[in-house]
Write a structure and sequence with these properties.
alpha+beta; Alpha-Beta Plaits; 5-stranded antiparallel sheet; RNA-binding; RRM_dom; Nucleotide-bd_a/b_plait_sf; RNA binding; RRM domain-containing protein
């Protein structure tokens, strides 16, 4: 027998269906491949024959394509009742299944945020400097280093890590303020006795290496 293009009959709505609010929900009954082609404008045109539409919303699938479900809000309760009283709603060979809603369903509308430019995090000023080039023959003591670098500001601590129990030719000088450290860094090459000192800012990898060396030497 030849197949008919007529839509399958929808379940008849009970005669006692009463509109509980101006909002009714709808579900499009039909093949999914064809249902997606049903435009929202077509739904608005269909429901507008029953009264003035305040809002018509169609839910979206996970892939942002229109789903088969949604709701429509009329201006008056009588208009919603008129739509519910219609036994058969057919639109573009698709049946619409209606139901009364006690209230307007909440619709989460995610606001599209304009991506802001990534903020460049400024490194926190350090009070420490790293000094290289201490000659062993100069036998530069902590007190001598403190006196030398005190020209830039108050020195709180001087640490000279050892390598295998011997002077490494390096030192870590901690000032009382980052401002004093910046003044010392402004002069990357300095002289103390016969030693040509090189002053560097703090680098994480370098800092770990120096402290690891210092701690291991203290344990011996």
């Amino acid at each position: 027998m030849p197949q008919s293009d007529a839509p399958e009959p929808a379940n008849e709505r009970p005669a006692h269906a009463v509109a509980k609010s101006t909002c009714i929900t709808f579900q499009v009954i039909g093949k999914a491949s064809k249902t997606g082609h049903l435009q929202t404008g077509d739904l608005e045109k269909h429901f507008s024959q029953f009264g003035k539409i305040v809002k018509l919303h169609r839910y979206l699938n996970a892939d942002n394509t229109p789903s088969t479900c949604g709701f429509v809000v009329f201006e008056k309760l009588a208009e919603a009742q008129a739509a519910l009283s219609e036994k058969c709603h057919v639109l573009d060979k698709h049946h619409l299944k209606l139901a009364s809603s006690r209230r307007v369903p909440s619709v989460s509308q995610s606001k599209q945020k304009v991506p802001s430019k990534p903020l460049t995090r400024q490194p926190k000023p350090s009070k420490r400097i790293f000094v290289f080039g201490l000659k062993s023959k100069d036998q530069i003591s902590d007190a001598m280093l403190e006196e030398h670098f005190s020209q830039f500001g108050k020195v709180n601590k001087v640490l000279k890590p050892l390598t295998n129990g011997k002077p490494s030719g390096r030192a870590i000088v901690t000032f009382d303020s980052p401002k004093a450290a910046q003044k010392a860094l402004a002069m990357p090459h300095q002289n103390l006795l016969t030693s040509d000192l090189q002053v560097f800012a703090k680098f994480p990898a370098l800092s770990k290496q120096l402290f690891r060396s210092s701690n291991s030497d203290k344990g011996t």
